[in-house]
Every structure is written in structure tokens, then in C-alpha cells.
Amino acid sequence: MKLNTLKPAAGSTHSRRRIGRGPGSGLGGTSTRGHKGAKARSGYKRKIGFEGGQMPLQRRVPKAGFKNINHKEYFAVNLSTLQALAEKANLEKIGLDELKAFGVVKGKALVKILGRGELKAKLTVEANAFSKAAEEAIKAAGGNTTII
Fold first, then answer.
1. Sign of CA dihedral 44, 49, 51, 53
2. pLDDT for the residue 1
3. Which of 127, 124, 122, 126 is nearest to 141 (CA)?
4. Is it the case that residue 113 has pLDDT exceeding 90?
5. CB 125 within 8 A of CB 146
6. pLDDT digit string (tens) for 58-71?
């Protein structure tokens, strides 16, 4: 076998249609564009969302709400998770590094401690934010909270 003898399988390739090459080709005249109208002209480009003159969807549907540019997305961690980590690894301090090490939080996520569950361990907890219930529960167990 030689590279210069290689050919695609029979019937697997097609020659492209040469449009607008005179009446003898069968594809001359209007060149498959129909008669008149914007689509028959050269340089035609359909506007985004154009629906043939009908009022486009993005103009029919009313606008609502807004995007708050100051919004911060927190990753929620409950007290039950902190209790499980404290029991599993015998920890007294839990911060972002410990949460990342145990796979609770990924990347540079902001962490907020929430009050679901029960906390028995005396812990020092560091996070970006705390709910009131979580902060009270941590202090009631003898620990303290630090906002980073």
C-alpha cells in the first residue's frame, strides 16, 4: 500500500454544488434563492431574534428584576458537619483550611456556618459568616467564632 494510491470509499464523498454558473448547469437564474426579497440579495444578514416582522420574543416578554452586583454567594456548612469533623479528626479548631482538607469546601468559596444540627464539641470556628443560631450554639458549647 502506498500513500499516493489512497482514495476515500466509493460514494462516501460528494462534489459541492456550483450555484450561479449559468442556465446550462440547472442552478443558474435565481441560484436557488427564489425570487426577490431580502434573502435573494447579496449581503443579506438576518438580525438576531428576527421573526419575519412579528414582534420578537425578547420584546414581547416583560423585563423583571435585576442582578445585584454586590451579591456574595456563600457555601453553607451546618453545625452537624462541624460536629462530625470534630469527632472524626479530634479537632479543636476548624477553619477554611480544615474544611478544604476534608473535602467539605472546594476552591476559594466563601463559607457561612448555619445552625442546623447539634454541636457538643468545644470548637474555635473560623469562617466568612455565621448565622445567629450557629454563633449562639457554638458559644453555648464553650467555643468561640472568628469572622475572617
1. negative
2. 83
3. 122
4. yes
5. yes
6. 999 999 999 999 99
Cell matching residue 102 = 476534608
Please report which confidence band the pLDDT of residue 101 belongs to, taking 50, 70 and 90 as the band edges: very high
> Which grid cell is 130?
455565621
What are the cell numbers at 62? 416583560
* pTM of this structure: 0.58
- Displacement of CA 48 from its chain's centroid (Å): 23
Could you give the 3-state DSSP secondary structure of residue 93?
strand
Reported residue count of the chain is 148
Tally of CB atoms within 10 A around 82: 27
Helix (H, G, I), strand (E, B) or coil at 96: helix
User: Half-sphere exposure of 37 toward its Cβ, with a 13 Å CA cutoff?
Assistant: 7
Check residue 136 and give its pLDDT.
95
For cell 464553650, the residue is 142
Here the cell at position 39 is 434573502
